[in-house]
């Protein structure tokens, strides 16, 4: 928080992490990094386990499926699927920005919010569908 | 590397940035991301269209060329893209040159090891006996 109440709010804040006013673009930026790390470490480990379980046969796969469909396993899978959607949508936003578009304040903010809303909708839709089919 | 007075302004500064290199790394990260968008859509669509998600169905799917090949590409590109991404994270937070290089080597080994493991599993599915 700024020390002086007489501060002109239209002036930019000094670039210090603790006093940045959080905006959707900052949240999306750090989420991109966090979800990317989670997908690489946990996601790829899980993918390896899944593939080797399919290769090993029904018994090994039953072990995988038992862990994956346990409450904790489902929590991890739902979390990773959200990380996947968030990272994908945010990555698409980055590709748009890489070609030099979407840097206007309003468009940039709108795109950032869209990735968050989009990833939550996609995750919900996926799991409503998956759990609906399983039942 | 500067090519002398005849080089363009861009040619003079090429390779002289603060990161010493990185243009290629940057492009690799973008190109692998575009490929992963396509492969992810394929993976998600395939999983949702499979009649069931039991071992036999999945084994049969990954034995077929149209299951095995895109999945192998997905594995390879995921590890490349993840490796490139985590290397950038290391570059941002690990400032000591020795530690930075050590982290890069650990990441490289982990990525190649993981990819080899996943591709072995795929090979066993594709070339092993039918389930």
Give a structural overview.
The complex is a heterodimer of chains A (135) and B (131). With 135 residues, chain A is mostly helical. In chain A, 76% of the residues lie in helices and 0% in strands. Chain A has helices at residues 24-56, 58-68, 71-98, 105-134. In chain A, α1 (24-56) runs parallel beside α4 and α3 packs antiparallel against α4 (105-134). The mean pLDDT of chain A is 90. Chain B is mainly α and 131 residues long. Chain B has five helices and no strands. Chain B has helices at residues 9-13, 23-49, 55-63, 65-93, 97-127. Chain B is elongated, with a radius of gyration of 20 Å. In chain B, 21% of the residues are buried. The mean pLDDT of chain B is 90.
Primary descriptors:
heterodimer; A: 135 residues; mainly alpha; 76% helix; B: mainly alpha; 77% helix
N→C terminal distance of chain B: 57 Å
Strand content of chain B: under 5%
Shape of chain A: elongated
Would you tell me the structural class of the helices and strands of chain B? mainly alpha
What is the 3D shape of chain B? elongated
| pLDDT averaged residue by residue of chain B | 90
Q: Could you spell the SSE succession of chain A in H and E letters? A: HHHH
| Uncertain regions spanning at least 5 consecutive residues of chain A | none
Helix and strand composition category of chain A: mainly alpha
Multimeric state: heterodimer
Instruction: Let me know the number of strands of chain B.
Output: 0
> Strand content of the residues of chain A, in percent?
under 5%
Rg measurement of chain A, Å: 20 Å
The separation of the N and C termini of chain A measures: 51 Å
Main sheet summary of chain A: none
Largest sheet of chain B: none
Number of helices of chain A: 4
């Amino acid at each position: 928080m700024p020390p002086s109440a007489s501060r002109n709010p239209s002036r930019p804040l000094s670039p210090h992490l603790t006093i940045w006013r959080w905006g959707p673009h900052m949240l999306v930026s750090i989420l991109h990094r966090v979800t990317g790390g989670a997908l690489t470490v946990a996601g790829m480990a899980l993918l390896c386990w899944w593939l080797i379980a399919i290769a090993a046969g029904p018994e090994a796969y039953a072990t995988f499926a038992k862990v994956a469909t346990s409450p904790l396993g489902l929590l991890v899978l739902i979390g990773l699927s959200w990380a996947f959607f968030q990272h994908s949508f945010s990555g698409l936003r980055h590709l748009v920005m890489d070609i030099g578009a979407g840097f206007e304040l309003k468009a940039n903010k709108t795109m950032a919010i869209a990735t968050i809303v989009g990833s939550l909708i996609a995750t919900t839709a996926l799991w409503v569908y998956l759990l609906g089919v399983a039942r | 590397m500067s090519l002398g007075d005849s080089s363009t302004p861009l040619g003079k500064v090429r390779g002289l940035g603060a990161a010493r290199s990185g243009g290629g790394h940057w492009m690799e990260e973008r190109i692998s991301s575009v490929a992963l968008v396509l492969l992810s859509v394929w993976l998600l669509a395939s999983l949702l269209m499979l009649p069931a998600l039991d071992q036999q169905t999945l084994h049969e799917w990954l034995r077929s060329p149209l299951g095995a090949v895109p999945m192998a590409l997905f594995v390879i590109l995921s590890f490349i893209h993840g490796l490139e991404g985590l290397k950038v994270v290391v570059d941002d937070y690990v400032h000591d040159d020795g530690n930075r290089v050590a982290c890069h080597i650990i990441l490289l080994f982990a990525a190649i090891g993981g990819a080899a493991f996943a591709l072995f599993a795929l090979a066993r599915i594709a070339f092993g006996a039918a389930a």
